[in-house]
Amino acid sequence: MTRKKIQIKKIDNTSARQVSFSKRRRGLFKKAFELSILCDAEIALMVFSATGKFFEYSNSSIEQVIERRNLHPKNLDTFSQPSVELQLDSAMHAMLNKEIAEKTRELRRTRGEDLQGLNMEELEKLEKLIEGSLCRVIETKGEKILKEADALKSKEQQLIEENQRLKQRLMNLSKGQGHLLEQGQSSDSMVTNISSTSANPRQDCDNVCSFLTLGLPFPD
């Protein structure tokens, strides 16, 4: 009885597909092992499942097999030919170097260097370029000067106002001290008058007694 030939196509059932993957993976690794023993071959297998799991087999080392593959003369010929990306990078690098050289030359000419190879038209263009740059520099410098002058004026006004406030405070303090001094002098005058009045209390008492005696008639 012959085995039924299986149609090679994707298995729709997830469980059946996983079971088939496990069986065939083990069979594949077994065949690789047998091939390495029977034929003294160096084999490396790498397999990723549908779920992203990684499986590998090698009778020596996968890294060694990959390195040996890269060092094979056939692959070395392929590596010696630059890829499209490398060619594009080289072209971009050459273009950037050319642009840098041109900008460096222009910068040196704006400083008055390397002018011998320029004709009259190129010199006139360079002159206009320098004049335009100089005008922009002068304009920017003028704006900076005006801003600094405005800042200094504002600071000067603040100092003047602060000076006026300090003067006002000094005047208020001077007035307060003068008022206190006047009050002190008035108090001293009152004390002096009281002291002079009370200097001879006995005489004052005699005067009062005489007044009282003269003012009352003697009884019969």
UniProtKB/TrEMBL annotation:
GO biological process, one term: positive regulation of transcription by RNA polymerase II
Family matches, as CDD domains: MADS_MEF2_like
Superkingdom in the source lineage: Eukaryota
Coiled coil: 149-176
Pfam family for this entry, one: K-box
UniProt domain K-box: residue ranges: 86-179
InterPro entries, per the entry: MADS-box/MEF2_TF, MEF2-like_N, TF_Kbox, TF_MADSbox, TF_MADSbox_sf
SUPFAM superfamilies given in the database record: SRF-like
Localization per Swiss-Prot or TrEMBL: Nucleus
Domain MADS-box intervals: 1-61
Main location: nucleus
Gene Ontology terms: cellular component: nucleus
Signal peptide: none
GO molecular function, one term: DNA-binding transcription factor activity
Key words, A-Z: Coiled coil, Differentiation, DNA-binding, Nucleus, Transcription, Transcription regulation
Protein name: MADS-box protein JOINTLESS-like
